[in-house]
Specification:
This protein is an all-alpha fold. Helix content is 68%, strand content 0%.
Length: 302
């Protein structure tokens, strides 16, 4: 006995079980990572796309916004690898610069929605009354189709990259919040958390030592899927003219420029669509692999 707390109870409260869902041991699953090719393939593809986007200003010298009416709708050639669009802009340059916009939107939305969704989810799980209010608000937001809600928000705020990030983040927060809430409610029923409460451990210490480590795994996995969803929403918004301004190169805008000419210049749609598809494939493969590795409850991990 020390300070009125049994030693066994204190040991249980301070323990970090190896088999708890999304536990600390799941953070460093070296062998599991090496066994899953989708993590390697997805990670390499995504890293290559991100590196290509970061190095775009050094790889190409053309201006993605420069107009050249005399060079409009040229076929692919040594001078213009992917040809030119109806305004004479180099399609290869625009696709590379479009990667910067699309990846920026996806990453920003994933980061912001994970951060804010984690906060909302933990607040919601802190009490029954606040949970009822917060979750009804989240359910109300989720009841509206994501693309319609994003279009409505863009109609209010106007077209820009920043506004696209804000609109899509608002759309994705409820999904992250519900995930975090569910994980927190599950972790609160674990014996080591109940022992920590019985031992008089402060709420802040319980959150830091027991709850946050359990949230990190599923939150990372969810962030990858939010990243992919955000890129799809950004492309859809830009394609219908409700996203980034037409002058800003993004994969959605490039496809929108080519939709009226798809029969004579199909590459204007197929090339940015291919870049978008490969990036989404990489992100989803990475997310699937991380889910299998970080969730010991997956059948492949049992």
């Amino acid at each position: 006995m020390t300070d009125g707390t049994p030693t066994g109870l204190r040991d249980l409260a301070e323990a970090v079980p190896a088999d708890r869902p999304y536990g600390r041991r799941a953070w460093f699953p070296g062998e599991a990572f090496r066994r899953r090719a989708e993590i390697v393939i997805g990670g390499v593809l995504l890293a290559a796309m991100v590196l290509l986007a970061l190095l775009t200003p050094y790889l190409v010298t053309g201006d993605p916004r420069a107009l050249a009416p005399g060079s409009r709708l040229l076929p692919p050639s040594a001078a213009h690898w992917f040809g030119t669009d109806p305004l004479g802009r180099d399609l290869f340059v625009r696709v590379l610069y479009g990667a910067r916009v699309s990846l920026l939107v996806g990453f920003s939305v994933a980061f912001l929605s994970s951060l804010l969704g984690c906060f909302v989810g933990m607040v919601s799980a802190s009490g029954k009354r606040i949970d009822a209010v917060v979750m009804r608000i989240m359910d109300g937001v989720m009841s509206i189709p994501a693309i319609l809600l994003a279009i409505a928000l863009m109609a209010v705020t106007g077209g820009s990259v920043v506004n696209v990030i804000i609109a899509v983040t608002i759309v994705e927060i409820p999904r992250v919040a519900r995930l975090v809430r569910g994980v927190v409610l599950s972790l609160r029923e674990q014996p080591y958390v109940e022992a920590a409460v019985a031992a008089g451990t402060s709420r802040a210490r319980i959150v830091v030592r027991h709850l946050l480590p359990g949230i990190v795994g599923p939150l990372i996995v969810q962030a990858t899927f939010v990243w992919a969803t955000a890129m799809i929403l950004e492309a859809a918004l830009s394609f219908i003219g409700a996203g980034t301004p037409p002058s800003t190169p993004s994969w959605g805008n490039i496809m929108a420029d080519g939709k009226a000419l798809w029969q004579v210049r199909p590459l204007m749609i197929f090339i940015p669509a291919a870049f978008l598809s490969v990036t989404l494939l990489a992100i989803n493969m990475l997310g699937d692999g991380l889910r299998d590795v970080l969730d010991p409850a997956q059948p492949s991990n049992l």
